[in-house]
Every structure is written in C-alpha cells, then in structure tokens.
Amino acid sequence: MATRFSAAVLPLLLGFLLLQGAPSRAADADTVAVGRPLSGRQRLVSRRGKFALGFFQPAESSQNWYLGIWYNQISKHTTVWVANRDTPVSDPASSQLSISSDGNMVLLDDRAKSPVLWSTGVASGGSTVGLLLDTGNLVLADASNTSAVLWQSFDHFGDTWLPGGKLGRNKRTGEVTRLFAWKGYDDPAPGVFALELDPNGTSQYLLNWNGSMEYWTSGNWTGDGFTGVPELTAYSKYPNSKYKFGYVDGVDESYFFYDVKDEAVVTRFLVDVTGQIKFLTWVESAGQWILFWSQPKAQCDVYALCGAFAACVENELPSCRCLRGFRERRPLAWLQGDHAEGCVRDTALQQCTMREAKNDDGFYAMPDVRLPSDARGVVSAASARDCELACIGECSCTAYSYNGSCWLWHGGLINLQDTSSTGTGGGSGTILIRLAASEFTSQGRTKTLIIALVIVAAAVAAVTVAILVSVFVLRRRRVKAQRRVVEGSLMAFTYRDMQSVTNNFSDKLGGGSFGSVFKGSLPDAAVTLVAVKKLEGVRQGEKQFRAEVSTIGTIQHVNLIRLLGFCSEGTRRLLVYEHMPNGSLDRHLFGSGPSPGHGVLSWETRYQIALGIARGLDYLHDKCRDCIIHCDIKPENILLDDAFAVKVADFGLAKLMGRDISRVLTTMRGTVGYLAPEWITGTAITAKADVFSYGMLLFEIVSGRRNVEQRPDGTVDFFPSTAASRLLDGDVKSTVDRRLDGDADSGEVERACKVACWCVQDEEGARPSMGTVVQALEGLVEVSMPPVPRMLKVLGDPANYVKFFSGLPST
Fold first, then answer.
1. Catalytic residue at 632?
2. Which pick of 201, 560, 720, 810 has the fewest CB atoms within 10 Å?
3. Which residues form the Bulb-type lectin domain (predicted)?
4. pLDDT tens per residue, range 782-807
5. In the CATH scheme, what architecture does the domain 2-297 have?
6. Contact 253, 241 (CB under 8 A)
7. Topology of domain 484-578, per CATH?
8. Which of 30, 187, 418, 632 is catalytic?
9. Model-level pTM?
10. What is the pLDDT of residue 525?
11. In whole numbers, what is the pLDDT of the chain averaged over residues?
C-alpha cells in the first residue's frame, strides 16, 4: 500500500522561496569508467550541473581529504555524501576513484597500507561505469545500459537525505537505511546520532544515540501522518503542489520519501551534529541555509548533547556549559557548536589508593537540574550524609543525589540539563558533583562547612520569604483572602479577591472570544495595575486547569503578555495579567481620530508592532517546549505598553478551554475575517492557522482600517484583495493608511504586503513559518512576489464575501 501526500505537511517548506539557481555551466564529465579515473583536483559534475563529486577538505584547518558529493550551484560548499567517512586521505593527488577489474567502483590510495579505502562491494561480473546524477545520487551501472543500476549512494546515506531517496527498510534482506550525523563539523566520520525506520518492524522513525538510547520518535504511521509529529499530516487534496512527502509500505520494502518538483528550490534533510533532524532550504540572496523544521524542538531533549560533565541550557547560546571545575575537552570544536566531546576536570581527583588515609575531595551542589537516568541506587544510605559517604567510598563515583533515596553516578556525567531558567519539571533535582579539594576556597574545603553554608543559606532564604509574605499579607487590607504562590511566581486568588481587586468588576476594558477583561489593582504589589479576564465556557477540571495555567505561567518573552496569577473556584475561572496602559491595537488603528493622548500610529511604530507580533508567535510555535497555537490572532488581542511595545495576549487559552484543536469544533469562536480556511473546511489545525490570521492582521496594520468594510451602496469592500492587486501593479504606497500622508518607507510597505499575501495562501503548506516571517520583516530573507491566493480573488467580489462567511459561528 502506498500513501502519498503534499508537502503542505512540512511547515516552512514553502513561503518566500522562489529561489534563483545559478545558471548551469557546460557540464564536465559525469562518468567514471575503466581507464578514466578521477583523482587530484578533478571532479565529476552532473549533467545539468546541480551536483559535483570530488575530493574536499571539511575545514580549512583540516589536513584530511575525503571523496564526496556537494551542491555545485550554490555559493557555500555543502557536502551531502562522503565515501570514505572513516578513512581520509592525506593527498588527493595520490588517490583516485576508478573502476576495478571486478567491476566495482573503488577509492584507492597509493600511500595507504591497504590501498582500497572504499568500494561499492557488489558482484557485477561485467563492464560498469560510475555516474553522478542530477539528483545527487552516485550510481554504479552497466556500461551498456546505465539504467541498470547495480549500486547507488541513495542506498547508503551519510548525514543527508536528498529528494528522491528512500529512508526505510528492505523487508526481504532486513537492511535498514540510516542517516548518521557527522562526528564533528570538521569530521565526517559517523557520529553517535542516527535516524532510522524502527528495525523492530513498526512504521515509526527513531532518533538514537550510540545505537542504543532512543530519544525521539515520530510515532507510528496512521495512514494520514505520524502520531508524534502532528504537523506531518496528509493533505492528499493538494495534488498540484510542488512538493510531495509520503510513506510507502509495500511487500518488499517500507520507506519514507520526499520530492521537490521545482528544481530552483534547493533543500536538504539531515541529522545534524547537534543530534537534531533539520530540514533546510538554501536562500541565495542571504547566502545561507535557512532552517525551516527541526526535531526534537527542544535542543536539550537530544540525549548526551553536551557530552560528559556539561549541562544543557535551553534557549541560550551556547546551549552547553561545562560544570564548575571542568573545562572544554576540545575548545575549538566547542566554539563551533560541537559539544559531543564534553568537558574534562581542571584538577584531577585524589588517587584512589590515597583516599583510605585521608580524603579531601569535596562536593559542589548544583540545584535545578534534570538528573541523568543512569544512576545506581544505594538502599543502605538512610541520610544525605550516608549517601555522601557511599560516594566517597567508591573510586569511580563522580556525583550523588539524595531526595529520600540515595543515587550514585559513576564515570562521566551525561545528559544533565540546567532547568533553573526554564521551569521544566520531570526529574529535576539537586546533584552534588565530586571535585578536587583545590576547587574550593580555604574557608570551604571541608564538606561540613559546605553543608553548613547550604543549610544557613536555605534558612535565611526561608526566613526572608516568610517575612516578606507576612508583611505582604498584613498590608493587603483590601484583599483579605490569602493568595498562594504556585508553580513559580503565579499567584492563586479566591473569587472574593478578584471582586475586591476589580471593584466588583466595574471597570471593563474589553472582551473577546474567551471572555471579558476588567481593570484591577493589587495594593502593595510589585505590579499594581492588572487586567483580569473572566473565562467563559471552560470545560476542564480543577487539576487540569491549574496544570495548564502553570505551564502558561512559565512562558516568558518580551512580546508575550505576562500572566501573574489565576482564580479557580467552582465553575469560575479567571486569569490575572499585567496591565497594558496603551490598551489593544484596534483602538489605535481603527479609532475615528488619534488615540487618546497620542497621534496616529507612525509607520515606523506600525512596522515594529508587526515585527513584535511575529516574534511573539514564533516563540509560541517553535521556541516553547510544546507548540502553542494561539487560535485567535486579531488586533483586540495585541496589547501595547506605555512605550508601544507589543504584547500578544490570550495565548494558550484555546488549550485552557479544553478544546481539541486537531479538528474543527462547532463551538470554536475564532474571529470571522481572521479564520484560516482550515477552520471552515474541517482540515486539521496547525500553527499555520495562526500564520493566516497574522497575514490578515498585517493587512490592517498597513491600511489602518478593517479588512472588511461596508460601502455606501451596501456592498462589502474586502481590503486584502485590493492590496494584493495593488502589489502586483507596483502601487503598494496606496495601500498605506491615508492618515500618514504617504510618510512610510516604501521598501518596508512592499515587504509587509508581500509577507501578508504569503501568509494568507490557500494551501497551508504554502504559508511561511512565523520564524521565516520574522526574518523577512528584518530583511534577512528576500521575499519574492507571491501568487494571489484563490480566496482573495473570490472574495474580491463583494457578493462572494457574504456567501463565503454565511453560516459561520459568530464572534
């Protein structure tokens, strides 16, 4: 059974990518034959010039040479396949790729002890040739019939999977094709990270470390997609898409494949040195590869990413840090982003034979870490002191942890994650790492004093917190009921608190799809003015609601509204946010006159607002541990602080409401006019629904008017259709808010209109990611002229607009 589906499933494949490939050169020879070997600086070039094969060095500082295939028409050397990954040559002049007497294609090195460094290893028994195809596939074929392929590089991947290749399993032979990451950015030898179809026979793909530890899975294929990758969902309704991406489960083989029909688009799928799967597209105008999709999304979810004695820190660069008392094993590789070798001690531990007489080793306490999973329990240790002594008594013990049970670690500590800045749970605790006595100050060399300092610090912190809480409670006379801090810094309020804070909900700020918002005041608090949202129609139980609120409360970004607390009492659910003095964006865009106390928003301010919204959504979609789909992007949900900096509000509320956003629900109350077609047609919802809504919002930011307005004759004017037409006519300046009197950067206006049109494409896969939108608005990615979406053409007719939206849920 074969299932094929459109690349609409790959977020970020499409978007602003009408790339201009370099014109093909007169093709060099693309064939290796008997008597016609390849050596030195010679190279093969595929017939249309897309790929080249020859000897290369992976880095300027490298002394090693490898035989490989790379892209021939882009400005950055990028290797996609290497023959001799484990056996480099020192001089390409003494090496050659040739056809041997037995018909195999072989790599020979005259200076090596064993002259055959690499071979195709097939029994041909006839005359053969080696041929480099325009797909990047190197094949060994019958010399008289090159379509009779005896061996191909597409059956022996390196770290890169090219369009047309099959990543899967031969059911008859049991052979599995794998992607192996490079060992380092300057070393193409197979590394520890690999991607493969489950060798046990299921239809899921696995990322593993060192051939054993599986740290990511796609989930099984269901016929429509992979259960663990919701964005990879079948869209067979788009047969004319330029991209095909699918899974085949046949009698003889099972495999994953993808194809790119537009030859101007250059893509690559690889397992990176970082242990992540990455899908990249080349953007010639930027001179670099642009990342469009990666898994696992959280870098620290990659097993042993930072090597031994280092901790992974999410959303920071560099993502790995050596522990106290350790330094980088390979500093240069570390600076290049390759941390696999980990860290080594600054000072060696006391020799084991000397410890019986006296042991001055100390322990450094590192709190808020995800503990490694390879610990050994010590049942006899009944206290932290017993646990410490158990570690000291074993020469190979490098760390311990005690949380009622004693756990010891031996050898290099791997897979540590510093969770202090992320608030992630799941195995977090304190680990005590063994260091040499010289790593501690003279006042702190003894373990007794270290423990005492920890105890004193904890006691002082506890007393300080207790005093502050007591003072806060005593001075808080208007709010008599107690508030409790939960899950970090979130405050838990009672409903009576909320009545007092909002003066019985007397000052309404506005309302939206999820409920009404009221102004409030917290006396004697760090944040005095607040906005209290009364949620309507919440379906979740108390425990689940609190869990979801706690998750949202940990999300921190300069362009996302800050959640301060919540109330969950009976059927009442309220959220407390920081108050934004300049209110929501709609009052500044659509007011009949200037905003109270302010003039008309300048173009510069509008552009920064658009960029801020994009950055906030990019964070929600791709930087959070789990993708958060907003589901209701509109001007009313974009708030502005006193400096007109953007704060996206109401994020995560679709999840709080207990909705299943993987399908359309009749109770969904996203706002008509901003809803993506998926909501209406019943297609699965992904982050691209937010991209569509953002595009509609961007049109309104440019024009300063609602996208839908009624004309004097009673018909409807749909502005996005007008803007798309003017964009094609080269008249984008006329789309700008008339109140600005033409005072706008024409280049930015054109860029914004192009981005908006790309965002509202009919096919989900044709829309860019918010990360790409950010890069486009920042000018880092060249934005090509978008096609006018079918929807905009249809809704350009006022009569069709009424028909299209009739019967939809009300806002």
1. yes
2. 810
3. 29-153
4. 888 888 888 787 776 655 555 444 44
5. Orthogonal Prism (2.90)
6. no
7. Phosphorylase Kinase; domain 1 (3.30.200)
8. 632
9. 0.55
10. 56
11. 79
